[in-house]
Design goal:
single chain, about 400 residues, alpha+beta
């Protein structure tokens, strides 16, 4: 039986060396990436490594903990056999320890290293010629949290369309400063062969130039915040353009029909690097009343006719809402983010990062289609939960460590 240890960072290093010697591909360990963070606590009186507190917090969130007290309570209920797997020594971290760490840790470094670790665990799809990865950017306000001066905490996030995996987030200050966060979050990924979708707020000339400069593509919605561009798109000869894609859906008590038209624009509208203009007409009918409404939406993109089809454009525009449906909504409904009582310091941002990583691990490694159900299951199955974090086969409960 292995000797007990107070921290699993050296254990992870030993396992990594063993995998390398065996000629196997060794996954990056979360313990290693968390060593890049500076411990915000005074050295005197520390009883748990910073990495231990953070990994315990991540595991607790994956098991359904919604508060600092919930994290500490989950840790205190852990069976003793799994303490070494989390780096716990004589006793689990208390709620005051969890609070001191999460309310003072550098949230930008924490978010960057954990999302980089999550991305390293994911197997990217095989690259084929002319294939694009599609990502969405959007902001979310942590409604229960307050920053300095009583301002709300507003986070700007990046999510992969296809997998729903969070790729990172930055603090936007508030919604009025969200435009400035656009480049900050996209700087985290290689934008070559990447299509970025955003809502109308980010249909900005500087954003289009930024993406072009970094080899990226954009599909931007155009609304009233760009009145000149909107007027130009409205005046195009749409009556002479055939419908290139038509879809119909039924759900939530209504039927929706969407038609999409595409028109080449070149330099005719003055928006940087725009090649195609898009018009979408949505017709919604309430099943119960028969009431019908219609909405016309315009978009621009620097993709060319050779790079994208009308059906693909329709999927890309609809897929933008994956960031709301698959991440932001899940953080609210499954993890209770808007109702969270973690309100001050870096706590709200740290907890939002832990929820993002939990969603990514549950979706991409656990294969969870329903995040809420997965958290309930893993809350009862500690072995499976630990295996998601440290990539080892969890020991059977009968294989208990003597502490």
């Amino acid at each position: 039986m292995p000797a007990p240890v107070s921290s699993l960072i050296p254990v992870a290093d030993a396992l990594l060396d063993h995998d390398v010697r065996a000629g196997q591909a060794a996954p990056v360990q979360v313990w290693q990436v968390l060593t890049t963070l500076t411990d915000p606590r005074h050295r005197q009186g520390r009883r748990h490594e910073l990495a231990t507190v953070l990994v315990v917090s991540l595991a607790a969130v994956m098991a359904g903990a919604r508060s600092l007290a919930g994290i500490a309570g989950w840790a205190s209920d852990l069976p003793r056999w799994c303490w070494p797997r989390l780096g716990i020594g004589r006793y689990p971290p208390s709620v005051s320890t969890v609070r001191r760490v999460l309310l003072a840790v550098d949230p930008d470094v924490l978010d960057a290293v954990l999302h980089a670790w999550l991305a390293a665990l994911s197997t990217p799809p095989p690259r084929v010629p002319d294939a694009f990865r599609v990502v969405a950017v959007d902001g979310k306000t942590c409604r229960g949290a307050r920053g300095a001066g009583g301002s709300r905490v507003h986070l700007f996030s990046l999510v992969d369309h296809a997998t729903g995996q969070p790729l990172g987030q930055v603090n936007a200050g508030d919604k009025d400063h969200e435009i400035a966060a656009f480049a900050a979050v996209l700087d985290r990924i290689d934008l070559r062969d990447v299509i970025v979708t955003a809502d109308a707020l980010h249909t900005q000339r500087c954003h289009a130039r930024y993406l072009h400069r970094h080899g990226g593509k954009y599909v931007f919605i155009v609304k009233g915040n760009q009145p000149r561009l909107h007027a130009q798109l409205h005046k195009l000869a749409w009556d002479q353009v055939p419908v290139a894609d038509h879809t119909e859906d039924k759900g939530h008590g209504r039927r929706e029909s969407r038609t999409l038209q595409v028109l080449g624009v070149g330099s005719g509208i003055g928006f940087p690097h725009a090649k195609l203009a898009v018009r979408i007409i949505r017709t919604r009918t309430q099943v119960s009343t028969g009431a019908t409404g219609q909405e016309t939406v315009y978009a621009v993109t620097n993709l060319t006719w050779e790079q994208v089809s009308a059906a693909q454009l329709a999927d890309i525009i609809r897929g933008h809402w994956s960031i709301e449906n698959r991440v932001h909504w899940v953080r609210d409904m499954s993890f209770g983010e808007d109702a969270s009582q973690v309100r001050t310091g870096t706590g709200p941002r740290a907890m939002a990062t832990l929820r993002n990583i939990a969603i990514g691990l549950l979706r991409t490694r656990h294969g969870a289609a329903n995040i809420a159900a997965a958290t309930r299951t893993l809350g009862r199955r500690i072995e499976q939960l630990l295996a998601l974090i440290d990539h080892r086969t969890a020991p059977h409960p009968s294989q208990r460590y003597q502490l």
